[in-house]
Amino acid sequence: MDNHFGFSQEGVRQYTCYRAPSAPVIDGRLDEPCWQQAPRSPRFEDLACGRPGLLDTRAALLWNDECLFVGYWIEEPFLQASLTARDSFIWNDNDVELFIAGRDAYYELEINALGTIYEVLWVWKDAYRRGSRFDAPELDLLNQRVQTLGDFGHHHPRGARWGFLDWDFPGLQVAVQLDGTLNDDRDIDRGWTVEIALPWRGMKWLADDRALPPRDGDEWRLDLSRFEQVREHGTTLSAGWAFNCHTVFDSHVPERFTRISFSSQSVAEVPGTP
Predict the structure, then answer these.
(1) How far, in Å, CA of 205 to CA of 104, rounded?
(2) Is the pTM for the entire model greater than 0.90?
(3) Which residue segments constitute the domains of the chain, with CATH numbers given?
(4) Could you count the other beta carbons within 10 Å of the beta carbon of residue 174?
(5) How far apart, in whole angstroms, are the C-alpha atoms of residue 242 and residue 46?
(6) What pLDDT tens digit does each residue of the chain (274 aa) get?
(7) CA 78, CA 94: separation in Å to the nearest integer?
């Protein structure tokens, strides 16, 4: 994905994703040695201006031949979540989000503290043509639930995107673990953790000419972020914090996604890890 469409690459962070010696159990706890050894991101920063987020949020990634693994550590003094139906508008709750970019498509996943998810596969309209690789039954505009992004809001110099709402990431696993009491503001909570496994076989729309699983040194672009509903004086505002700043309050800017470099080295062998 080399097209920048006018978005500067200055400040786009890089992260090395190491191999997991063994696959973590997807239970949301992030207590296994591989997660303790994995390098954690810096504190997430404001999506638009780059200031450190009001509440601490960190992320880490691992991989093996079967899956990409993602973990989040989320400071949250008042655990809140209300949406329980899959593909609800999870951004209306406090959530964490993951975007994975290909050249002509990208994947969006959102998760709240109840473990409810919203996911969609976005395909750029200029790449969706009859006879193209996206001309497939699972991405049929006439027989799938589809929404448009870019005609109204989330404008991008490349144009609009088709969002395939019925598309589910094959084999996706998600788990959350809470450290506090959900929807009870009588005490102060510590936060929550999220653990995700995404099988490489589900990445076919995103891989382009890259190997699955990745080869040593391969680079992908991922966005790891968090949105918080901040309530003050009767007003609710949405704060967005990400691994690196997008320079605009918009998650849907693949050119500003973090550069993830895959290493064949085991995380247990990385100097300086616990």
Answers:
(1) 8
(2) yes
(3) 14-269 (2.60.40.1190)
(4) 20
(5) 6
(6) 556 666 888 889 999 999 999 999 999 999 999 999 999 999 999 999 999 999 999 999 999 999 999 999 999 999 999 999 999 999 999 999 999 999 999 999 999 999 999 999 999 999 999 999 999 999 999 999 999 999 878 899 999 999 999 999 999 999 999 999 999 999 999 999 999 999 999 999 999 999 999 999 999 999 999 999 987 777 888 999 999 999 999 999 999 999 999 999 999 999 876 5
(7) 10
Tokens of 1: 């994905």
Residue in the block written with tokens 């498509």: 105
Token reading at 151 = 């005609």
Type of residue at 29: R
